[in-house]
Design a protein that fits this description.
globular, single chain, 45% helix, 25% strand, alpha/beta, three-stranded parallel sheet, 87 residues
Length: 87
């Protein structure tokens, strides 16, 4: 995925929307997620694409909402946190 993002960063689309909807992640996968967001941040900083990360979380999942806020505070890519109904 990181290699693909590196290639995409060379000629990104005018608008890039990143959709993230996770049910669960652990400490080691959170590092991988951060690596992806850092790669996206590098693309975003080049100014060739308008980028937004859409962070979906279940309405009652405060931990997932907080995690989205934590990532939003770390990277400069705009985040939109979106509550979804529990399935």
């Amino acid at each position: 995925l990181l290699e693909w993002l590196d290639e995409y960063g060379n000629s990104p689309k005018e608008v890039t929307n990143v959709e993230v909807q996770l049910e669960y992640f652990n400490t080691s996968s959170s590092k991988c997620i951060l690596d992806v967001f850092k790669a996206l941040e590098g693309i975003h900083k080049k100014g060739k694409t308008e980028m937004t990360i859409h962070w979906y979380y279940e309405e009652d999942d405060e931990d997932m909402l907080e995690a989205g806020g934590d990532y939003e505070a770390i990277v400069t890519v705009p985040f939109e946190k979106i509550a979804v109904e529990e399935e």
